[in-house]
Amino acid sequence: MYTLVWTPAFTRAAEKFAQRHPDLRVKLAAVLRDLESDPFQPHLKYHPLRDKLKGFQAVSVTYSHRIILTIESTEQKVVLLDIGSHDEMYR
Description:
YaeB-like fold; five-stranded mixed sheet; 5 strands; globular
């Protein structure tokens, strides 16, 4: 089991995300639960990022929405950094 660490930036972004996409609140909650149990589950589509986001990873909330995070495997922590649309995240 992993511990989710909500950064202040992620908390603000998640609140805005939930306001803009009330239909995705249940899906987001499910993704966060799955991250807590195992962030490497295939349906989360975990992948490392490149270019200016090198060193970070992302998982999918939906086809067009992502969560950017880092995983500290030795401490079993998932540090949540940002959430938003694919285009917002990878600009």
